[in-house]
Amino acid sequence: MLRRRVLPGLVVLLAAAGSLPAQTTPAKVAPQTQEVAKAATLTKDPVDLKLQDALRERDAIIRNLLERVNELEWRINGGFTTPAKVEERPALPASSTSRVINSVVSTSTYDSTERQATEALDQALILRGGLLLPSGTLEVDHTTSYFSASSDHVTVNGFALLPVLVVGDIASERIREDYLLPNFTARLGLPHKFQGDFTIPYGYELIRTVDANNVQTSSSSFGLGDISAGVSRQFTVEHGKVPDILASVRFKSTTGKDAFNLQSNLTALGTGFNALQGNLTLSKSSDPVVFFGNLSYTANLPGNHTVSANDPTNPSATMVGHFKPGDAVGFQLGSILALNPEVSMTLGWDQRFTRSTTLNGVDIPASYLVEGALRFGTTYVYAPGKTIDLSFGVGLTPDTPNLQFSVGVPFRFGLWGAKPKKLDVH
Q1: Which whole-number Å values give the CA distances from 154 to 148, 150, 163, 176, 377, in the listed order?
Q2: Which residues lie below 8 Å from residue 162, measured CB to CB, with a gap of 6+?
Q3: How far is the C-alpha of 357 from the C-alpha of 301, rounded, in Å?
Q4: Which segment of 73-77, 173-177, 410-414 scores lowest on mean pLDDT?
Q5: Could you give the 3-state DSSP secondary structure of residue 207?
Q6: Which residues touch 120 (CB under 8 Å, ≥6 apart)?
Q7: Which pLDDT band, with edges at 50, 70 and 90, does 21 fall under?
Q8: Residue that is last in its domain, among 101, 135, 159
Q9: Range of the domain at 283
């Protein structure tokens, strides 16, 4: 009896003792098994590898979207709070092989798509002073404008061109003026929400005059206009009911030929007076429309010029006169509609009032200007960083050019700044 009871127990113990080497032996070769698994992973079907890459890219997109949501919340709060940092978590493995593959997925494609979604709208705002370029971005803009006027006075680019004829009697003369003015403009986005720019105008001007005896005379000129430079600063970022607010200061020189120092067969391409201009621009979005408004003040600085003395007994007599051009106050109201990511349309109204110019303290007749123009425009983004801007204006006051048309071709380049963000996917 005892033997029958003990023998089965011994058999069980022997069987258990014999199984111990069999269990420990695989544990010793486990690293070799993992090496084989890794090698098998590297030779896995390419379709599986592409699927794993797609899963990792999906995880990178999700983290990128979370960062964008935090950034948008920060902008809505006006930048007064610190953006929350997105916690970096490893992606869930699709299989055991995903643990041995470490790749970096660039999100530049998605960033570019988001920028292009509003590029036409942003470009229209930049050209109209309602938005600044990002820091480190250079934009070169070549705009050609055509103006046609049939009045005594004409204003181009916000600065009054006062022909020397206003000193005399022009009541019996009819003047037709045609301007073709190419402008070279460079804008540079600077740190701390600043932007600098300068404009070099040059072009062709033709003036045809018909006097009281129905005799027509013409004069023309080609050359450099008045170079100007400015700096802009953005003070607030749109959040809630608060719009984007930008301010700028601009100085205009006297590099162009003015009406006081010309030969009889030439016309003026400059005003002959320095000027300092200040602008305040507000813009507010209401998707898909952006409304903008601009208030400007132009201080035309005085200067001395030699003009005709208007002496009937001595027609060739001249005198040195002290001119004080009238200061100007203007405003602009408009809206920009985004038709699609590549095209936007602009509708705006420009109004400007210029005080009378004085000569030796006496107002010059007919030198008070009231300008008003209705403007239409469209902006088309035909490639990343490349845009075509068309603008058409109709003058609705006698002091405004009857017809205005311009074509602008700005190009944008990145000089410095943060590179497209890259995310590590584990």
Answers
A1: 9, 9, 9, 11, 21
A2: 153, 259, 271, 325, 357, 367
A3: 11
A4: 73-77
A5: strand
A6: 338, 340, 341, 342, 343, 344, 379, 380, 381, 387
A7: very low
A8: 101
A9: 118-417
How many domains is the chain partitioned into structurally? 2
pLDDT for residue 252: 95
DSSP E strand stretches across 150-301: 154-156, 159-161, 174-190, 194-210, 216-224, 228-236, 244-252, 275-286, 289-300
Q: CA dihedral defined by 125, 118, 68, 237, rounded to 10 degrees?
A: 10
For residues 321 and 192, state if they share a domain.
Answer: yes
The Cα 100–Cα 33 span in angstroms is 15
Computed on alpha carbons and rounded to an integer, the radius of gyration of the chain in Å comes to 36
- Helix H or strand E segment including 13: helix 2-28
Q: What is the pTM of this model?
A: 0.66
Select from 182, 174, 178 the least CA-distant residue to 149: 178
Find the mean pLDDT for residues 131-136: 86
